[in-house]
Amino acid sequence: MTIEDIDKEFFFHPFTQLREHQQHGPLTMVEGHGSTLTDTRGRTYLDAMAGLWCVNIGYGNTEMAETLRAQTERLPYYHTFASMGNEPVARLAQRLIAMAPGEMSKVFFGNSGSDANDTQVKLVWYYNNVLGRPEKKKIISRRRGYHGVTVMSGSLCGLPGMHAGFDLPLPMVHFVRAPHRLWEQQEGQSEEEFVRDLADELERLILAEGPETVAAFIAEPIQAAGGVIVPPASYFPAIQEVLRRYDVLLIADEVVCGFGRTGDTFGSEVFGVRPDLITVAKGITSAYVPLSACIVSAPVWDVIASGADKYGVFSHGYTYSAHPLAAAAAMTNLDIIERDGLMRQAKARGDHLAERLRAEFADHPLVGEVRGYGLLGAVEFVKSKDPLTAFDPALKMSAAVVQRARELGVISRALPASDSIAFSPPFVVTEDEIDEMAALARQALDDVA
Ligand code: PLP
Prior knowledge:
Elements: H1 3-10, H2 18-24, E1 29-33, E2 36-39, E3 44-47, H3 50-53, H4 62-74, H5 87-99, E4 104-110, H6 113-130, E5 138-142, H7 151-156, E6 173-176, H8 181-184, H9 191-209, E7 214-219, H10 235-245, E8 249-253, H11 267-271, E9 277-280, E10 292-297, H12 298-306, H13 308-311, H14 324-339, H15 342-361, E11 367-373, E12 376-381, E13 384-385, E14 388-389, H16 397-408, E15 410-411, E16 413-415, E17 420-423, H17 431-448
Parallel strand pairs: 3-15, 5-6, 5-7, 7-8, 8-9
Antiparallel strand pairs: 1-2, 2-3, 4-10, 9-10, 11-12, 12-17, 13-14, 16-17
Helix pairs in contact: 4-14, 5-14, 6-12, 9-10, 15-17, 16-17
This protein binds pyridoxal-5'-phosphate (PLP).
């Protein structure tokens, strides 16, 4: 049996068209170096997505391998329940608090962005229970937002595909529009008016639900999976004004933006977000080992800590919370990013990516928008620019382009919510590799359009 046969026979793939998979089988990668992957047949691909927006330092980093070997020999695992600790995780928590924006106080560790956002909601609920406000539990999220796949974090997603078949979203989750200029900004509306419109929509929803029932608002600084939606500069300040007015906490989901993808440490710093809680994952270890974290502000922590009087033990945590291998990997990953100036490099490469994507795609009649920020880019396809008309979703233009680009040797990702293809390469990507990614993606469009 080939590895592909074994895969088809036994492996239940996540986020996969299961029937098609049974026919076509997997594309199995065996090796990676920098931004290049190699499959079982020896074919190489430029990974324009850094895996799933996460292998920021690139594949095959030997310093990470050495850290993992050394920590495995020293202490591969010990739990952190009931006041037990381990060295790498205490140091990582200290480092994250020093790096995080705003008045952050404590770090709770998990294993994925999904479980971290799930934890954030539990923290918010616990906080309001400690404060004696048991009715303040609703969460507001945004259309096109992506926050994970657990029952709660899947509910927080503003992507219909994440709910279908799973009886989601849970009823305490409500949605407002995304700041997606292409589709949401009315003709003749200035940016200021557009932002006001979005902030007013949020305020109307809070008032309609009753501010005493609304606990938190969750947002990615840049919506990644929803289409690389970059907000106007005044968006988050306007949104925050509304949230503060009604005592609604802000959870910044920095799973993609965190640790340099925007060119700054956190997307919150770029877009003026002042979060009460921050979710990180992916780039914290460049995905060499699973790790996520909830970074908790001092005022929220103070209330949660005082919950001991009412509830005793804080009964939440995972076997793998604060795993020493993951914490050691995160420390080395952050060392590499700082020492090699990879955040600055991400910004510079991002500027080059934006320029190449605009050059290859902006004038194409089927391209509605080329957008991005830092080392994040997207090209959105439309049936017509004037009048602006989307393709029939069944046509899946972005999926066709991504499929063809893969045959040409570039791995991009289709973002169906906005019929876009995404670019989020490792920070170590070279300018030549970016040129090739953009040129081959353009060739893919020409081949399928
Ligand atoms: N939040 C954001 C912004 C994400 O992009 C993702 C994953 O893509 C998640 C949360 C979920 O993370 P995970 O897949 O690690 O559960």
